[in-house]
Every structure is written in C-alpha cells, then in structure tokens.
Structures
1.
Amino acid sequence: MSSTRPAIPEGIKRQVRQKCFFGCVICGMPFYEYEHIEEYAQVKEHTVENIILLCPNHHASKTTHKLSKERLIYAKNNPFNGSKEHTSAYKIEPSSNLEIKIGTNTCIGWDISRIKDHHVFFINGESYFTLHADEDGWLTVSLKITDPQGEVLLKFTKGELTVNTNIFDFSYEGNRILIRDKDSKKIILDVRIADNIVAISYAYFMHQGNDGFMVENGTLYTIGDQTIIGMDTGSLYSHNYHGAWGLLNIRKYPNIKKPGGFGSFITCS
Ligand SMILES: [Zn+2]
C-alpha cells in the first residue's frame, strides 16, 4: 500500500479558491497554499469543508501553533476578502531588467534615463500597462487587465497585485496567473508574472468594452469600435520614447491629443 498522499483534486481546489475569495482567509493575500484545518494525517481525505487558503506567513503561523484551529474555522466562514471588492495586495519585487512578452511580440531596452514611465498599452488617453523606473533604475509594472467588456479582473499597481473578488476563478501557481470566465468557464486571462518578466499569452485590455487590445495565440489584436483594426506578431519594440502600443478613438475622444513616441499608434474614428 502506498503511503503517498494523493494530490488535492482540481475541482476541490477551485471550490476552495472560490469560497476563500482567492486569498488567504486571514489576510486576503492572493499568494497562497492549500491547507487542511484538521491535519490530513488525521482525516486522510481532501474535502472542500476542511481545506482553506493561507498565505505563506499564516501557513507558517499555523504550522508553528501560533494560529489556533478556532480562528481558522472562524476565518474559513468569514474569509478576509469575502466583504471586499478586491483581494489584499501581493508585492512583486522590482527588477533591474524586465522583459515584456505580448504573445510573440517583445518589448525590451527601455531608455529610462530620459523618461521614467513607459506605456506598453495606452488606450484613449489611459495607460493599461506601464513600466515604471525609480531613481535607482529599478523597474516595476502597473497593469490593468480586463474582461472583453472592460471590467477590471486584476491589477498590478507598481508591482502590487490585487484581484477582483467577483470573478469566477483565479489561480496563481508558480509564476502563472489564470482567470476563467463565469459563463463559459474558459480561460480569459493567462499571464506569467515574476520580477523580471511579464509574459501575456491571453488577455484583454479593453476600454469600456469598445476599444483596446486582445492577446490570443501569439497575436496582439488592436480593437477599435469592437472591430479588429490591427494585428501584430513577432514585433520587437525597443527604446521607444513614450511607449509601445497606443490606440485612440478620435470620434469618441476628439479632445485627446495623440501622444508621440510610440512603437505603434493607431487611431480609429
Ligand atoms: Zn495571510
């Protein structure tokens, strides 16, 4: 007989994530481990009722008996994120070298001596993806990824990740984030994020569900007035002064001035 503990089934893990609102039940952080309230060695089964999400800090607090079972059971029934619109933050550390992959497109070599904020995606005057450099040259990202209708699913604010608690499913395993759609259950966000890379395989960056960018199967699509008006594969953008991809719907926003210094800037009307 094998003494190996079987893995927690994916379906149970998803239900646990949903019940815990995608974060540690104590502090809400969206970087977590699955933990049995009653030890697996005792119960010898994986059930949704007995498993919670704990961040590494609160996991260690439990393991070292600083966090009581009573409090864990209370937190399971009253998870920190349950009454919040988004999770608490998880911070990705800054890096001196950051590679950005958008499908098969690459952005590298930002000239941070001249300008500190570079806009990877700039839509109707608003940045959906910014690379920030601090005084010492350390780089962080701000990122706003939406669903096709423009509802924000997750945000990075200078490296701090927060997730919308009203979504169907979010997982962050290894350095890969996946979000699934409520109705279709299909993946609508697939991104790898670490301190030195942001690699986007599938995502929407939509302004009011009308104008924006979509990444799918290696291609970056530019969408204007809900119509595909541009496609990019294999592009390499480096040392662009202001940013990489810009989009402006001049019919809806006639007063926004088109900024210069983008690798690609499309206007639609
Ligand atoms: Zn915690």
Note: The chain has two domains: 10-83, 90-268.
2.
Amino acid sequence: MIIQKYTMIDNGAKKYLEYKLDDFEEIFIEIKSQNYLKAEELAENLKKSFNDAKNEAISKNDEEYANIFYLLDIYVDILNSISKLWQLLDNMDYPTSWGQLQNAIDGIKFLKKYILNPDELQINILENYLENLEKYYPYQLFGSPEYIFKKEECSICGRSPYDPECIHITGRLYMGEVAITLHKDLEDITGFSLVKNPKNKRCILKIKDFKKEEVEKTSYNILHTLIMGLKKPLLNFEGPVIKEGLLPREYFNTYDKNDECPCGSGKKYITCCYRRKYIKQTLYYYIKKEEISLK
Ligand SMILES: [Zn+2]
Ligand SMILES: [Zn+2]
C-alpha cells in the first residue's frame, strides 16, 4: 500500500501519550456551548501534547506513531477551524467565515486519505456537515489563477522531484510529515479563469460590500436564515432542499422601493412585486438532525 492507513485511537500509542475519546469530546462540548475561546485553548493544549509525542516517536525512529500523532494534530486543527468558523457565524461575519470553512474541509479531505475507518471520530459525519454548510454560501464561481514557478522541491528531502535520488512518493507520510511538491519562486501568473468546482475554493469573487444590518438584502441571506434556524454549532442537518414558494410581502420590509426586487427578476422593487401580497422566492429548506458528538 503506497498511502498508509491508520487508526486514530490506538492502544499502542500509549507508550508515548495517554489520550482518549473524551479529550476530543471536551472540545466538541465547548464548541456546542459556544465557548469558542475555551475550545481553542483545549485544542492548543492537545496539539502541544501530540507534538511532543510525535517528537518522541521520531527520536525512537518509530515512523508509525510519528505519523499517527501527526494525523491527530491535524484532527485537532479541524476542530479548531470549526470553532473559529462558528465564532464568525455567530458574529454574522459570513464573508470571513468562508476561509475557516475551507480550512476545516481541506483538513478533513486530507485526513480521510490516511484513516482506516472514516467513521472514526465522526470524520464522515463532520465532512457531510461542513459540505452541507458550504452549499448555503453564495459562491458559484471561483477564481483560478495559473502559475509558473522557477523551482519545484520535495518537502521531505529538498531535492527536485525529478531527481532520481529523491525516493519520496507524493502523498505518503514520512516520519510525521507528508511528502508534497513545493513550488518555489513564483515567476509569473499566466492566466486567470473562472471555474465552478476548483480544488481550491479560497479565491472568491467579492459579490457586494457586506453589511450586517442589511443581511436580508445580500446574497448571504440564505446562509443567514440557516444559521438563525440552527442556532448552535455542530447540530447536524440535511439540506438544502430547494423549492419555489411564496413569502408574505411584510417579510421584505427592509427593502427600499429602489432596491432590486427580492423575487430575483433584476428589476426595481417598485416596478416589480412591490404591490403584491406574496412574493415569489426560492426557498431553502433544511431538516434538523442530531447533535454531532463522539459518543
Ligand atoms: Zn524527496
Ligand atoms: Zn419581483
């Protein structure tokens, strides 16, 4: 097997560090209680222990456990990102929250490559939860720049990946580190394209200046409605189920006559649905499910 697979809660790891499901569950509990700073403090402490344990494993040339502690550290990073994500969502800082959501999703995708059982530590459920959240953001198109680099380097040995002396396989773990090709010395950006489903979704097109006070008028309205409905972090849900529907006019009281009509026609509100009793809307339903927890 080229890519190694591991179990995260591993009895053999005890020779370096005693850790248990409860250590992670505590972070879940703090996030769910919206004690984000406490959650992040617990995460920091756990990361420190995992790093110390990893270094001890490295000093004994024990690659298996160096890799396991490396993966545990990444799992805690994911929980950290979820905590930061919800802190931003609670503050209605929706545009900034996108970056933390992407951090968490990237972490999960990475981790899944190395996990024997993706149900362990609720990794599958967390992935599903985060990807459902992602669908409520207003981003449809992403910028995708194309780069040229002067130099490529193996992250483990520093040689060029074309150098026959470099024996490292991309994606494989070596003593608690992943082998990747590092791109160095940016020479030029040769193009910029808009794509629907890039690997890296961090380059977003700014839609409008975002104002919290007028969130209903922005394209973050769908996300806002979801967050207000869920009320708390790590409550799992299924969605969105998209349906056409009608909402009473009063729902759009914050709209000015000269604003764009909430029906999405692109016309001015006054010349479109302003006098109607009900206004056509695309409605995004979701179904609340159980809280995500490790036990
Ligand atoms: Zn190498
Ligand atoms: Zn209209």
Note: The beta strands are 142-154, 181-195, 235-248, 278-291.
